[in-house]
Amino acid sequence: MTVLILTSEEDVTADMVVAQLHKRGVPLVRFDPADLPGDGTLSAEYVRGEFRGYLSTGGRVVSMDGLRSIWVRRPGEPAAHAPEPSAWLTAESGQALYGMLHSTSARWMNEPGAAARARLKPWQLRVAHRSGFPVPATVVTTYPQVARQFADQYRHVVVKAVSGKPPHDPPMALPTTLVPPDADFADVAAGPTLLQRYIAKEADIRLTCVGEELFAARKTAAPGQVDGRYGETGHTWEPVPVPDRIRRAVTRYTELAQLAYGAFDFAEDAEGTWWFLECNQGGQFGFIELETEQPVADAVAQWLSIPAD
Amino acid sequence: MTVLILTSEEDVTADMVVAQLHKRGVPLVRFDPADLPGDGTLSAEYVRGEFRGYLSTGGRVVSMDGLRSIWVRRPGEPAAHAPEPSAWLTAESGQALYGMLHSTSARWMNEPGAAARARLKPWQLRVAHRSGFPVPATVVTTYPQVARQFADQYRHVVVKAVSGKPPHDPPMALPTTLVPPDADFADVAAGPTLLQRYIAKEADIRLTCVGEELFAARKTAAPGQVDGRYGETGHTWEPVPVPDRIRRAVTRYTELAQLAYGAFDFAEDAEGTWWFLECNQGGQFGFIELETEQPVADAVAQWLSIPAD
């Protein structure tokens, strides 16, 4: 049975998993929805209760009843590489492809509907609370006075994007930033703004969850550093054990969110508490594996290798 | 407790339900995500495990813990009416709004993740099979020779859009159409094509499912008519009883699809069999109610009125 990896051509993280699947002798097909129609082709028949389908790319054919799992890694937009792309061709190709894939009994990492919901940052905070994580007080608001009150109450607050992705038109970096005491909140009315109590952190924690396998890594923060993604600290990611309490909370979170994969970010404070910041259902793990030698790619390959029900 | 209706300003179908909710004395707020930020505002706080949120529009405020249900009727794109709209502001506003709404315990008609999956036409056919509906043989393919073989095998086949929505740039009507015997299938390679065995139909059936309430209506077809949405037949929609077998299949379908609302289309053949064509999770019901006097809007209002858990 075959593993289907939906991703675009240049994807080093996918390459790492592909190498592990090869080691295990598990057949796989790498498919970019952007190539459909064109190099990518499909056919699905629904006849008298029977469903038969197959997908083909680069001369490789995969039968839908021989599919064990689908890894939604970084798929291109359907039909993006078509000679005459259009919004309608994208809709038709996307419905054909994902409709066919949803007709199989393959296991998803992650199922697209669950993934879409799991991206909603305010929802993440709610689920994190319910799962037992400590979560810094947070407000999402379009009211300048609510933002002002929140900043006054908690004194040290950070502002960050609600949707997680920075603007790309024009492209702009949006690091999580400390709000200065004299900030003018008038512009909060122009777009929902997320403010969060600042956790004075000793370290960033990245916990990668692959099915039931958890890999935690810790990187000491530079004094006063706010966003771990930006700036050099001179420190590297080091593997750390996963506390039992965190393990239970992660399990509860991924159950509630119906995720097979999630990359959790925590801030570790001076007392050693891991504060939930976010869970990125499509988060990278290549940089963690390179620095910690934690076998995340192998765990992904192993999860994908389990036969479908 | 309040009902939240997400829809744009001009929506006659929503008006019908609003009238029924008024009759029942159930408070409601109508909110267009396109008005956020601007006339629409929101605020959500996540503090020590507690979640408090509210939404405001046109001077009305609705508290998230006072929300009994959310009707996703025809919402505008978040931030579409902002003075400086952008893809990023749409992402930020959408995440803030839907993230907050998903943090509530309100009941959804329909939950957005389930709705997205339920739109996948090939998946519908699979679920319809599993639910016990007769489904005409169907193929979705990018292979001209597969299309050709399917047409040869079934002789009378129709072609229709995979995604259900016609192209809007340029706008184009795409009625379901009989494929002529000498059709050239070469263009199938240019985009996934859905062919389905033609059901010589006596009538169109529209079955509207609202929670556990089912309303079936029948409209006699004109001789040789293929797409019930186009052309005058001289016939009107008449209420018909729902056969037990169909009721069981509808219940199974909406359970599998996790839908509170669905508009099912069937073709009734000469033997009286109802062939499943599609289930539109956001299908209109105004035209049915007007012609049949079936109280669909009232059923929607009743479903929305049930308090949240």
TrEMBL record, chains A, B:
<dbReference type="Pfam" id="PF21068">
    <property type="entry name" value="ATPgraspMvdD"/>
</dbReference>
<dbReference type="InterPro" id="IPR026449">
    <property type="entry name" value="GRASP_SAV_5884"/>
</dbReference>
<feature type="domain" description="MvdD-like pre-ATP grasp">
    <location>
        <begin position="2"/>
        <end position="111"/>
    </location>
</feature>
<protein>
    <submittedName>
        <fullName>ATP-grasp ribosomal peptide maturase</fullName>
    </submittedName>
</protein>
<dbReference type="GO" id="GO:0018169">
    <property type="term" value="F:ribosomal S6-glutamic acid ligase activity"/>
</dbReference>
<dbReference type="GO" id="GO:0005737">
    <property type="term" value="C:cytoplasm"/>
</dbReference>
<dbReference type="GO" id="GO:0009432">
    <property type="term" value="P:SOS response"/>
</dbReference>
<dbReference type="InterPro" id="IPR048936">
    <property type="entry name" value="MvdD-like_ATPgrasp"/>
</dbReference>
